[in-house]
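USER:
Before I trust my own judgement here, I would like a peer's view. Write it directly below this note and I will take it from there.

ASSISTANT:
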Amino acid sequence: MRYSAGGMVAAVLALGTLPVAAHADEILTFDWVSANYAGSSSPGTVTPSGSIVVDLTTPAGTLTGTPGVGAATGFTESYSSATDWKNALIGFSYTDSAGTTFNLSDVTSITPPNPLVWSDSNYVTPQFGSSQGNYLTPSFILANATETLSVNVGSSTATTVGLSTNSVSNSSVYDVGYWELAKVETVPLPAGLPLLMSGMGLLGGLLRRRPAMT
């Protein structure tokens, strides 16, 4: 069978117009919410604040549930390697109540949770909290050249959210509260792009098989 170059190009381009469901990245932002809890916390004079940004990129992980602010049921994204889990963390910033600032750009090492998941709770009211929300459930540790920040989510599950603590090793304070899901952004890919890319690869293979013109 002989193929014309023009015909093959037209066929490949037509693939990109087929109605195929698009894949998309989900970009999640969790914001720090301080808790009104005076138990064993050691707050400073600065109001702590921070955000965690996670990119749930398919197919790096396996997603169960649908992320959403106010979603009745939480989500879990599971990973087979620590590298994939770390790559999902695309943003982190935190200023503790002593004024110490910790940013992802300064991080030199990350200790991921066990199991390797990004996940949040159902839409619940956390322990010592006053409002319902979807709250981060895994704990992890970040380190830079001089400090270590422990993000310790205490005894949290899909239905029960324990008090979280953030503590910087060289700081004299540690803060209590929760990381609440504040925003979910969907970054879609064009619906026909996966087929178009596959077709371009097929086109290249067919063209290599054509006999050279003399």
Observations:
- The chain is about 15% helix and 35% strand.
- The first helix runs from residue 5 to 15.
- Residues 78 and 115 are 8 Å apart (CA to CA).
